[in-house]
Amino acid sequence: MKADPDAETVVSAPRGADGRARAGSPHGRRGAARETRLKGIPVSPGIAIGAIFDTTEAPAEAPRRSITAAEVEAERQRLAEAVAASRKQVAKLKTRIGVLPEEAQEELSPLLDAYAMMLANSRLIRGARKRIESDLVAAETAVQDEAESIAAAILATRDDDKTGLLRRAQEVREIARRLTRNLTALPFRALKDIPQGAILIAEELTPADAALLNPARIAGVATEEGGADGHTAIMLRALGIPSVLGCHGLTGTARRGDPCVLDGTAGTVALNPSPATLAAARESLAAFARERAKLAKLRRLPAVTTDGEEVELQANLEIPAELPLIAQAGAQGIGLLRTEFLFMNREDLPDEEAQVAAYAEILEAMDGEPVTIRVLDWGGEKDIEALAEGIPALGGPNPALGLRGVRMLLKRPELLEVQFAAILRVAAKGPVRILLPMVTIPAEVKQAREIYERVARRLRRRGERLPDPLPPLGAMIETPGAALAADAIALEADFFAIGTNDLAMYTLAVDRSEAEVAHLYDPLHPAVLRLVQFSTEAALRLRMPVSVCGEMAGNPRLVPLLLGLGIRSLSMNASAIPRAKQAVRSLDIADCARFARRVMEQSDPARIQELVMGFAEGLTERA
Ligand code: PEP
Ligand code: MG
């Protein structure tokens, strides 16, 4: 699951920090177009062959915009935010250039230092700040005007070193472009114009950006940032777009139009691929299609072990566009409906009617299959503009440890009330369960239940017919605290869904979407497995339903271990269901239990990985 994020070979022309070939570079444009192979984290399987579409390319000049005096402070704030974002990006680029050839490093390092200086209290920033007020213009207009004025002054200097002057002027314009891009940053909303079959590259893609991608147009995605189980990765898997994240050196090497082969299974990006790489990729594409056709045949077969134990295989849903895929995959319902999609890419909050319509559509599409709806889980990387304003603490210094999930909902109970009411109003359309995210103490479930029952009473008074008893209210177990207190939380909750993505992140203190520490993110770490085991046993002792709905559940190699730990319900990306079913149908529960006992005796994650791979290979050989 992990990959060495270093570049294997990097044969590229030195570029500006934005990835454009530098003027006067000895390598010039595209050079000899030798194949360049970069490695990253494989997050969404499949092969893509296409041309690079580089979103890191600076936009054409942002349109000039005037403002009123009342808007000056807000524009200055926007400028300050864009400066901070640019500074962070340049600092990151600086840590990344180590993967480039020495020659390129020597060229880029002083350039990035110059950029960093220009983003401190420089003439450019001071001048732009001033212009916002004196010229009453928007931040991007002020930046562009100030940069042009500085560049013109540099070029008018009397100096024989004309190349040097030109270079300095270029640097000012370059940093102005970065600031402008950060100020006008809506590039992904314009992605409808992306050429058909392109491979999209970017420094970073947020989950909200990813939700806007059209899998029918985009053949593949690669980014510098990101980790295997971050929400962006989850979204890309959900859309079925072959993707490689955490691909260091990418934006400094690839450029728009470059031919590319992206392998989302191996985690590689080959730029200017050789004829041999292309031929191999075409062969893999065909093999992938054959495998998919084979797996599709499993759709109607039950998920039952060789000794007759039934296992529930459900789908996770992040956006309604996935519904047809869920039907094709033969899922037994939705085990995790992440409702964040309803709140993304909009400036206001969805009201009760809008939510009723969205949930009703999903329940109707599921045609009587159970659906577990998780109430809003606002987290650090899930950027919800409409909420950021109302709750400034959300953005705080450490959002993952801040007002996330149920904590935020209890702070803003009106959000929870609207969501509960909308879910209750559609509950007659099919079996529904409601799930609370990021629970850490039993009192959170208790308080949420009080609100839930209050909302139900209000709806009944209004004449709404609600199921009796009300749909079950469950808790995500996704922090070590919740896992270790699972027996106490079990007394308040009706069911558990174990979220191994956050559980691994919080247990190992590793950001699941951070490429730099991706090598440490390991759901097979014994600490994570012990917490899964502990919370599963707490639920089973009370005969309470428990499922695993983190990305672990969708890895067929981990199915024997999870079954061996007592789990009988798994919820995963729809496209993972056929392989998980294949695994279930080849397993014997007693074997799984023995195997799990052996794994749980280990303390070394590498040894556990070895055991898991060995068990899976044994199964393949027997199949
Ligand atoms: C998890 O944390 O494992 C989970 C399923 O929730 P999410 O990925 O949406 O945070
Ligand atoms: Mg989670």
TrEMBL record:
Give the protein's cofactors: Mg(2+)
Record-linked SUPFAM superfamilies: Enzyme I of the PEP:sugar phosphotransferase system HPr-binding (sub)domain, Phosphoenolpyruvate/pyruvate domain, Phosphohistidine domain
Q: Where is the active site?
A: H231 (tele-phosphohistidine intermediate), C549 (proton donor)
- Residues annotated as binding phosphoenolpyruvate are R338, R374, N501, D502, R512
Kindly state which keywords UniProt assigns to this record, in alphabetical order: Coiled coil, Cytoplasm, Kinase, Magnesium, Metal-binding, Phosphotransferase system, Sugar transport, Transferase, Transport
Q: Where is this region: Disordered?
A: 1-35
- Read off the Pfam families from this record: PEP-utilisers_N, PEP-utilizers, PEP-utilizers_C
Any coiled-coil regions, as ranges: 69-96
A Gene Ontology biological process noted in the UniProt record is:
phosphoenolpyruvate-dependent sugar phosphotransferase system
Keyword Cell membrane assigned to the entry: answer is no
Q: Which GO terms describe its cellular component?
A: cytoplasm
Which Gene3D superfamilies does UniProt cross-reference here?
A: Phosphoenolpyruvate-binding domains, Phosphohistidine domain, PtsI, HPr-binding domain
Q: What is its EC number?
A: 2.7.3.9
Is Metal-binding found in the keyword set?
Answer: yes
Q: Name the InterPro entries on file.
A: PEP-util_enz_mobile_dom (IPR008279), PEP-utilizing_PTS_enzyme (IPR050499), PEP_util_C (IPR000121), Phosphohistidine_dom_sf (IPR036637), PTS_EI (IPR024692), PTS_EI-like (IPR006318), PTS_EIN (IPR008731), PtsI_HPr-bd_sf (IPR036618)
**Family that this chain belongs to:** Belongs to the PEP-utilizing enzyme family.
What is this protein's name? Answer: Phosphoenolpyruvate-protein phosphotransferase
Query: What is the source species?
Result: Caldovatus sediminis
